[in-house]
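Hello again, I could really use a second opinion on something today. I've been staring at a protein lately and its backbone has me curious. Please have a think about how the structure follows from the sequence. I owe you a coffee for this, so here goes:
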Amino acid sequence: MSSSSRLLDTRGRGAVAPEFLVSPNMLDLVSPSGDRGGMMLGQGTKGEPLSVSVLRPTPTRMVVVGGLYLARQIALRAMATGAWIIIATGRPQAWQPVVRAAGQGPDGRPSQLVQLRRLSPADLPRPTEDMPLLVIHDGGHVPQELFPPRAPWQTTMYVLPYLHPQASSTANNADLVLLQRLPMGQAQLAGQMWRLRPQMFQQLTQLKDDQVIAMGQDMWAHLRLYTTPAEQQILGAVRRGD
């Protein structure tokens, strides 16, 4: 894992993300919930809120292993903070709910806050503190390094449908990894990649559809996803796969 600072905080403690401004209409649509600065992701084992500092003043890598539901939920919540969202994907139809959620601009065209791209190198907008950038790389189990995070306020999130030995470089260089339930073989591979104790990779095989392990430098947090009614209208019920 990268040696960057811890990304997850509980009840406002630990990593603190900045605040961004967004229109009331977007807040009404997505209705994100969380403490100051963090992106509310779920609840801990004792019901305490857990938030993730996704958009930071340093280049950041994230890896999400599992279904599309979690990745799309993170996209919605980043969009609600006022971030640019660029989605590089070979399955654009799967991301249409996020595009539609962004609404339309003053000219009646789809909002440019969310852009779908092909899986090929391209110029990116310059992120700033007022308008950070989340690049979502949805390119299969062995992603290419098309949009590496090189600038402050840019986060690149790699969406992996499952773990593959050739993805070890991407996984090990991530500042934050979010893991959904894995079959035993995948969990054992995770144990090898991150040198997990047996009870830790066993835990990965027992997660429910709405449970996630958040892993980072000196961090292993078991959480239950929190989904708002507005998000359920956009994405449907919480699920492990798609």
